[in-house]
Write a structure and sequence with these properties.
By secondary structure, the protein is mainly alpha-helical. The protein has a two-stranded antiparallel sheet. Strands 3-4 form a two-stranded antiparallel sheet. A hairpin with a 2-residue loop joins strand 1 and strand 2. The longest helix has 55 residues.
Length: 281
């Protein structure tokens, strides 16, 4: 049989302990519902926090890599657009050479054709020297010897490397558009020979545009895959880190009822000791 005691109110202590436990659970549910996260600090789930942070680093790496790939596409689109203009110029110069190869032209006619050819050749060289992307020269191999390394993944080894040769005329160190300059269409013989040279140059530019286009298409697929990986990893991270609103709402309602009950029981436990005073009457 238990003794009557005033100093130790067992009922009040137990009610207070229950109230503390209920309040802690209720505060946890409130924090999770207000933040939307199940893990708001290391004490909520130490291992889960480590896992979620590792996933966060990879997800953010995917997103930045996708932006890098988009920037690489923009750079390559600039390169391809400049090469397209060089292609157009070469086609016009070839047209001039074909015209100059005809015996219906006088010397003055060929001089006029030569003047236009010289201007177009100078423009090909200018495009090579002046085409830039974000202040980076992209057609004359002065930026890192024309080698571009695009970082397209979350890790250090996820790169695509592409080298653009010097697309100027008569570059001795790195033959680009190998066409002659000077008096190249002033006679029928020179014009006929120049047609073959231009055909090779047109083919070379076409090959380079093909390479650039292939990398741009590759980057399209790279960005799609990065988006896929980021999406699915974000779903996995959410399962680790995010709060279950249905469960937390139910727990909040339960703890609110239990809090009222525990406070009521604590008040009754404190009041029950008043009955001992009857022994002194």
């Amino acid at each position: 049989m238990g003794m009557l005691s005033i100093n130790t109110n067992v009922g009040a202590l137990r009610a207070a302990d229950s109230a503390y436990s209920v309040n802690k659970s209720m505060e946890t549910s409130m924090q999770r519902l207000s933040s939307g996260k199940r893990i708001n600090g290391a004490m909520d789930d130490a291992a889960g926090l480590q896992i979620s942070q590792r996933m966060t680093a990879e997800i953010r790496g995917f997103h930045q890599a996708a932006r890098n790939a988009a920037d690489a596409q923009s750079l390559l689109a600039t390169v391809e657009g400049a090469m397209a203009e060089q292609h157009n110029l070469l086609q016009r110069i070839r047209e001039i050479a074909v015209q100059a190869a005809s015996g219906t032209n006088s010397g003055a006619d060929r001089d006029a054709l030569q003047s236009e050819a010289n201007a177009l050749e100078a423009e090909i060289e200018r495009i090579s020297n002046d085409t830039t992307w974000a202040e980076i020269q992209v057609l004359n191999a002065t930026q890192d010897s024309g080698t571009f390394k695009f970082h397209i993944g979350p890790d250090g080894s996820d790169t695509i490397t592409y080298t653009i040769i010097d697309m100027g005329i008569d570059n001795t160190s790195d033959p680009g558009i190998a066409i002659s300059t000077g008096r190249v269409v002033t006679t029928q013989a020179l014009a006929n020979a120049y047609i073959g040279i231009l055909d090779n140059a047109i083919s070379m530019v076409g090959t380079k545009r093909n390479e650039v286009g292939g990398i741009m298409n590759r980057l399209d697929h790279t960005m799609a895959n990065l988006s896929n990986m980021a999406t699915n990893l974000s779903l996995a991270k959410g399962r680790v880190e995010d709060a279950d609103f249905a469960a937390e709402s139910a727990n909040l309602a339960r703890t609110q009822v239990l809090q009222q009950a525990s406070m009521s029981m604590l008040a009754q436990a404190n009041a029950s000791k008043q009955n001992i005073l009857a022994l002194f009457q």
